[in-house]
Amino acid sequence: MPLTAFFIMRFSLFTAEVMSFMFILMHKFEKRPRFALRVALSALMLAAAVVVVGISTKLWLRVFNYDENDFRVYLISTLPYMVMFALSVTAYGICYRCRFYSLLFCGISGYCARHLMFSIYLLFVVPVCPQYNIYAYIPFTWTVIPVYIAVCAVAGAFICFTLIGRIRRESINEVGREVLLFCLITLFINVAVNSVIELKAGSRNELYITGLVLQSACMMLMLGLFVTMSDRIRLINEKKIINTIREQQEKQYKFAEINAEMLSIRAHDLKHQVAVLRAGGKEAEKLLSELEELTDNYGYVTNRSHNAINTVIAEKWMYCRAHDIKLSRMVDPDALNFMENTDVYALIGNILDNCVEAVMHIEDKNKRVITITVSERGGAVSLSTNNYYEGQLKMSDGLPVTTKPDGDNHGFGMRSIRCIVDKYDGNIQVTTDDNIFILCITFCKK
Length: 446
Fold this sequence. Notes:
Elements lengths: L2 H24 L3 E2 L3 H29 L7 H25 E2 L2 H25 L19 H19 L6 H5 L3 H24 L4 H73 L4 H20 L5 H16 L3 E6 L9 H19 L9 E9 L2 E9 L6 E2 L2 E2 L11 H12 L3 E6 L3 E9 L2
Parallel strand pairs: 3-4
Antiparallel strand pairs: 1-2, 4-5, 5-9, 6-7, 8-9
């Protein structure tokens, strides 16, 4: 193979590898207008750059007579990779709409993943079969390429599923300058270490392998750091969303409390009207009996000793009644008096909302039943619910996972429940028995 073609092959593989790993992150962003045209122009730009860089590298190395002891030779060998890396990032910037910091972060992640994959190939294949060193010009055979692609496909898939594929888009959008500066410094240090290893190791194969192991560890640590940072940002964002939901629930609680008070007054007035209207005949008698039953039931659920419990159970009871759901309750209104009203409202409200959602679509009306119990014994407070459910129940970290398609934007009810329980040092236990979902929360009163 001519030396120019050899360099073009090397830079083509490098660019394709970096862009493949970058695509795992970049495809999550919005495409720019005329996306297909932009992709075509970017591909032409990269193809032309690979040819120009390959020819230039050969000419510059010839100027320095390929002297392996000359540090400039390795700089000339390394610089084209940096150029192709920059052009790869630029190409994605042309095709996708995202912040510059996010774009650069995706590029650094793709480069780290690619370098880790390549190091794995050099560590596990080249020592056993030196003739399969794809970046060694002598000896080089075309049979190296399918072996290289096969091994890198396996290593790349492993890196995608365990590391780079776990980085979320919302965390990419929140990457700041400080994180990028740290990543770039680490990347440049890695390149410098690699340069020293290539120049100084020479025939000392054990030193070269040690350097590869260190570089692989460095790339794994960086990608692991990115995944940890992504998870942390996700948790912070979820906490913000939960706080927002709780603020909305607090406003809703105040509004609902007013409505509950007005309904209580109305129910009280209706009781007096019942006695006056009883002489109106059979139809009036039937209607009045229904009204009396309604007011008695509403008065039962609105025990005045704890306003938050009154409000939320009254709300959910009326909703369940309107949707043919039986809400059975045995509630000690004083059991949760150690909690803030808004926390009680949010806790019981989210629990009953989940129960209602589970039984809402059950065709058998005999199974559309929700039971809630709140009791206290010896300073231990127990809050439990049970309800029927249909389908498969998926669990994660001890809690059921939302069944809605857009999982990233739903499922905050259970997370809010956990936050409130953790706030009061409580414990959550979820069990199932013959398609009955049982939630038990316990607190120890201080």
